[in-house]
Amino acid sequence: MLQKTGKNYKVTLSRVCNKETGRRSGPPIIKTPTVMLGANFYTALGAIRTLGRRGVPVYALDYYFPAAYALSSKYVTKKILCPNINQDEKELADFLIELGKTFCEKPVLMATADSYALLISRYADQLSPYYLFPDNQPGLLEKIIDKKGLALLAREHNVLIPATYIVDQSSNLGNIAREINYPCIVKPALSHQFVRIFREKCLFVNDQEGLLRTLETARASGLEVMVQDIIPGFDDQMYVFDFYVNRSGRVTHTLSAQKLRQFPINFGSSTLTHHLHEQDLIDLGTSYITKLGYRGYGEIEFKKHPETGRYYLIEINARLSTLNVLFDHCGLEFTYVMYRDLIGEPLPDYHLTGDQPWAFWHFYEDLISTTAYLKKRQLTFKQIITPLLSHHRAHAIWAKDDIKPLFSFAKLIAGKVLGKLLRTIGLAGKSKGTAN
Fold first, then answer.
1. Is 139 part of a structural domain of the chain?
2. Are residues 124 and 262 in the same domain?
3. pTM for this model (two decimals)
């Protein structure tokens, strides 16, 4: 097992050979394991289930078990406590190297968040003797994940992006505030760092005064940010292009989908997304990702201008997708596609075309979002219900063959709600006491 003493993690896991029979009789079938980085989000849960259902042993790592509800999946072979990547990236890299030494064969290494994808990229040379993962050019993932680098790459390859101003210590904030269209958004260069400080993926700004105030706050935090124009259109103008590029650089699997609702509304993650084949989008995304020389699984998010019909690049996710369960139901298991390619047993090419009747749905977050849409009169009750009735729903967390994660998630949410309620009561009591 893996033990932690204070801040020191010690790998004491015995040699892992992962003999899985896969059948009732005959010699054992040995399957290459997967090491999953991060288990506190449904991104990891979906990937764990995809691989587990295929009989692949999954070793799931996380630094805080109480919040890692994906660990309760029956498809997790072993739960492993690891160093906190948000506190010490190198410590986690060293831990992974020691863990890798305990396997009889190289396991596949997968990232469920940007921070883990960056770690794999930065320590690729040290990790490659012990793990299998896509072989990308040094520094490419850093450029893709960093919104500043992504904007520069898009301009280099003539891909449309919203009007963007990169803000650093030398930028003239007044000029930017006068030139940008309003409303606009302030986005981070690195999302995971920004979210830890501001608790938002981006900041929405209505006027010059608000922008200047926001930029001063961001600058004081020490984070590099960007000011970006907003492409018009409702949330259903957001599209994703998902793809897999094999080890030789060929795009072997593709799919497109359309977002219908997001959390938070207008600038968040999907709560309801359905499969929709858009060949122009697939052609655009395939051309762009090929020019970049990218390897592995990825997802490009675009916004379609409602008047011109042109697609604007918003971001690229160089890690596993939150929509994994939708892809599985549509018959394109990207997580398993990547696994098979990396172990040297690639699956046949497959480009999903005909529209499938499935929609990804995160009930809890969608409940919050639909309340906000109704409050702001962006959707009617009928518009909220119709897509739910017209699709088969691919649930973010619920699965009839793996129910424990739902209870773990519910417990986690209940704890947060109770904690917020107790804080509110405490503040009210303190205020009352002060008044007396």
1. no
2. no
3. 0.89
